[in-house]
Amino acid sequence: MATRPHRGRGSRAQALASLRMALDFDPIAAAGKNWRENKWPAADAMVLATSVTRVHQIVLGRINAALAPFDVSFSRFEVLALLFFARENELPMGKIGDRLQVHPTSVTSLINRLSADGLVERVTHPTDGRSRLVRLTAQGSAIAEQCAVALGQCSFGVDGLPTHAWDSVIDAATEMRLGNGDWR
Questions:
Q1: Exposure of 100 by Cβ count < 10 A (0-12 exposed, 13-18 middle, 19+ buried)?
Q2: What residue segments make up the domains of the chain, in order of their start?
Q3: How far apart are CA 97 and CA 100, in angstroms?
Q4: Who's near 78: CB < 8 A, 6+ residues apart?
Q5: C or N terminus of the chain, fewer CB within 10 Å?
Q6: pLDDT tens-digit series, residues 13-22
Q7: Whole-model pTM over 0.90
Q8: Which positions ≥6 away from 161 have C-beta within 8 Å?
Q9: Other CB atoms closer than 10 Å to residue 58's CB: what's the count?
């Protein structure tokens, strides 16, 4: 199946160009130095939090650049992937929100957009007529697989971090997520 024409804001080249803001110095290290010199509290925590936030921006920018040809954002891809792996390729909206850890309003917005694009459809629950399920369409399944390939080709946006460091970063992130109640 061919990719869909991109209808979003800007091209993949523009998305990649926005990631390149090289400076002659590390602004986060400079901020840390300023915090320490002025005896502001938690300078190391600020450097860590700011570094994580910047890495998030870089990774998400690379992911969205890889997905731009499919007119799918990372959030919409997450829904498609979740439905792709679900039994019968369908889930209730509440479960989608729970599994993606997003607010019900965000789920509704994502499903509305995916539905308008023909990638998912709302169907009546087979055993509870009052309930609705979100089902992946054949087109949505094909786009999900194409997006997965594109994300694999860009290492899901984490290139630049040596593969030998991946486990340490995953472990540290998992500890923080667990410590903040991401799951029980």
A1: middle
A2: 13-165
A3: 5
A4: 100
A5: C
A6: 555 555 566 8
A7: no
A8: 169
A9: 17
